[in-house]
Amino acid sequence: MGRKAEYSEKQKKGPGRKARKQGPPTFPKKSFAPLEVEDQKLSHRQKQRLVKRVQKKVVQKAKLKEKQAKGKQQVRKQKTYNSDSEPEDEVKKQQSSSDEEVPQLVPIPDIVKQKTIKGFTDENKDWLKLKKQQKKVLPKPEHESVDEDNSDEEEHSVGSDAEEDSEAELDSDSGNGFEADSDDEIEEEDSEDDGYDGTKVGKLDDLSDDDEDANSDDDFDVSDAETADSGENASDDDDDDDDDDKLPIERANKRLKKREAQEALLAEEEAQMAIDQQDVFKFPDENDEDESGLTLQEVQQRIKDVSLVLSDFKKYRQADRSRGEYIDLLRRDLCLYYSYNEFLMGKLMDMFPLTELMEYLEASEVPRPLTIRTNTLKTRRRDLAGALINRGVNLDPLGKWTKVGLVIFNSQVPLGATPEYLAGHYMIQGASSMLPVMALTPQEKERILDMCSAPGGKGSHIAAIMKNTGVLFANDSNRDRCNAIKANFHRLGIVNAVISCEDGTKFRNIISGFDRVLLDAPCTGTGVVSKDPSVKSTKSEVDVQRCYNLQRKLLLTAIDCTDAKSATGGYIVYSTCSVLPEENEWVIDYALKKRNVKLVPTGLDFGVDGFTKFRQHRFHPSLSLTKRYYPHTHNMDGFYVAKLKKFSNTIPLTKEQQEDDEKQLDEAIPTDQSTNVSNEDDAGAAEDTDKSSRKLLGKRAGKPNLTDIEAELKKKKLEQSKTKYVAKVFEKPIKVEKKPKANEPPVPPNLSTNGIQEKTKNIIDKKAKLKKNDVSALHTVLPAAVNGRGSNDKKQSAPAAQFNKKPSTPSHQYNKKQSTPPTKSNKGQKTLGAQSKKEQPAQLNRGQSPPAPQPKKDQPTPTIKSSKKELTPGAKSKKEQSTPSTQSGKTSKKSALVPKVKVNIDDLPILEGKPIKKQNLKHKSKQIGNLKKSKSGINAKPQTGNKQKFKNKK
Ligand SMILES: C[S@@+](CC[C@H](N)C(=O)[O-])C[C@H]1O[C@@H](n2cnc3c(N)ncnc32)[C@H](O)[C@@H]1O
């Protein structure tokens, strides 16, 4: 029958050398467990080791138990603090899980490599080590060195029958289904040896549980010693097992961390106790005069303290102090610390919760990042960025929300003077300024109005999106700022724009039917405090009132200028750089009530929703569609954007209602206050207010309307300024203050006689005629004014008029002033009045326009000529009359006694007070020169001539 077939499978040889090379070794602990099962397969040596190991294990476990029993109580205490101290099983688990990491953490020392080169020549030389030296190394106290050397030795011992052993282990592995390869098994063997040899191994040798147990025996001693040394409590014992596989430095580190954690915990407890126990914050005494001597740090500390009290008022309050008192104190301190006025700080405190307020205030102290907008009419952002980077500008795209914005981190060149800037490749513009235009979503070929456009940042953005098609109307009421629009549009290559300089509130009478309107309204600028810190201390309630009234007027006009039936648009975007609800939500809420518009989403996917309520006020719920931007949340200036859609061109109000609205806006009184006024005052007073407000409207057309409060304030200011003015410059004339009866125009004292008044009137008439450039009339007029009182009249009445109107300084106002008085009186003035009437639709702007001052400029030239020709003969009489004028109505007799020169010098201060005209000044300085000469007795004759010239000229 032959021999029986041998079916028992041959032992698997396992992966060959090539396979061994692959992958890093892994050492799951279980792969070493089922040794009993595979007992028969163990080599003799292995069996010996196993026996040893089991013996040692028993001894070591007994020791361990003993130790644990001792330190149990202390360990428990420490467990709460020490997350690392865990039961033995867990420790083992941890160790086994950390096993895999160990080989990576501990590199094979060079010594080992050298040794392996000696002992082994195959690919295993890297990890197989000679065992010979083991005995020499064992006595070494240092764990690390022992570890290293040990490993070498044991590797060597394993290495001697590496192939066999590994194969045996692999078999066992395959039987258990674990993944360890032959290398792992060999390592395991080595580690076991280490354990038995009682050496501390810090790397591969620690991988098995048995080894840990074995090693822990020695380690206990060591760690005990260490614990004793460091004075640490017994809780460390728990970690000893865990620590076994760690280097001393790691163990020290662990202890340090533990200690730190404990200390932190204690500190926290202490702080909490201090808070709980402290007699919190002592409210400063009102009579305490140390207040003024507080340092900034002390103020800051007090802000913190009061904030703490307010955060848990019941707990920390001082019994006799109300919340209001704390809030007041906080407001004062915040004002002091951040340099705000109380009004604005109060507004901000109303808007933000305390913590957010602090963030807002802090953020407002820091300037926002510098940003630029690519002008897509001329370049692409990528190209621009490249060009600027080449110039040493460090930049980045501004954000995902914009395709044209770049943020500048730093620059070696001034960004307002690079060739790219000059070529119009970009506009320096705040990030927030791009938002309203994005919300407007301009379309090509549309008709768009930018109602308050200067200096043209947003306007030029609109034009760029329109790709220079359609028409952009860029309007601003300020002529100087209009020039800035012009300059920017030129630079940026905008060719589809019409720039106008009109009062926005009147724009509906000029042109309407726009597809879209952007109203970037004038505001208090409370959102741009970091740019203009003066806002913090200068803005008052009056400013806010004035702004929001103007804003409401402008918004209604913007809506009226929009065509609801526009095929592509019918949208209005309203924006401000203010964070105050009065200038934002209130304005929109007002427009929602007064016009056929509704709020639509802005299309901006970030920003805080607008308020639907603010303190006791409630707004239309759709106001949540509007967006707010803050420096502390969006790292951009405080800003507000709302988008309205006009759904009907009809105005849902009767004409009367509209007029009422207009009136109301012109009165510029917030509803609450107006009711107060009407309640408090009688009907007559109310009427008066009405009239005055209408007056204001007339005078101030095109300018922000004044509230009653504002008017009052202005009055006060005016009076103050008068006093100042009088004291400093016009002491003499004002002293004379013999004001004519109420209805009469003020007449200077020296002209108080009827005849002189008549002559004055005549002069005014004639001069009005002169403005018609009637030179022939001039020659007839001037002889009539020969006595020069006309000029004196002007001298004194002009300043009077001037300081009455002085507080409103802008040039357009000045021009207006010039045109206003003539309308009140005679014919010549009527002509002027007619002129000004013609110009009225754009009063502000026209007022600013150069033609208005021209007649005055022209005036002196012919006067001088004529004075030369015709006035010289009457010089004497002039002197006689003009002299007393300076002596404030005293008799001509006295004046006759006064030396001529002195009189004229006395006149000089009056000249100083006149409106500054360059021409006048020139002549005056000449005159002064001459007069001084004459005073010194030189050239007496020409002096009179000069003086007359001077007077006539005036
Ligand atoms: C916030 S700025 C406009 C900034 C501009 N949109 C930009 O992006 O460059 C407000 C402008 O409104 C102008 N303004 C003030 N009152 C106005 C009025 N009644 N009509 C038209 N413009 C007015 C101011 O001259 C100022 O230039």
Automatic annotation (TrEMBL):
The keyword 4Fe-4S does not apply. Residues 1-119, 132-247, 655-701, 734-760, 783-954 are annotated as: Disordered. Keywords: Methyltransferase, Nucleus, Ribosome biogenesis, RNA-binding, S-adenosyl-L-methionine, Transferase. It holds the Pfam family Methyltr_RsmB-F. The keyword S-adenosyl-L-methionine applies. It is found in: Nucleus, Nucleolus. PROSITE patterns: NOL1_NOP2_SUN, SAM_MT_RSMB_NOP. Residues 145-172, 180-196, 207-245 have a biased composition (Acidic residues). Residues 43-62, 916-926 have a biased composition (Basic residues). Residues 805-834 have a biased composition (Polar residues). Residues 1-12, 867-881 have a biased composition (Basic and acidic residues). Gene3D superfamilies: Sun protein, domain 3, Vaccinia Virus protein VP39. It comes from the Eukaryota. One of its GO terms (biological process) is maturation of LSU-rRNA. Residues 360-647 form the SAM-dependent MTase RsmB/NOP-type domain. The active site is at 577 (nucleophile). NCBIfam families: nop2p. This is 25S rRNA (Cytosine-C(5))-methyltransferase nop2. It comes from Drosophila lebanonensis.
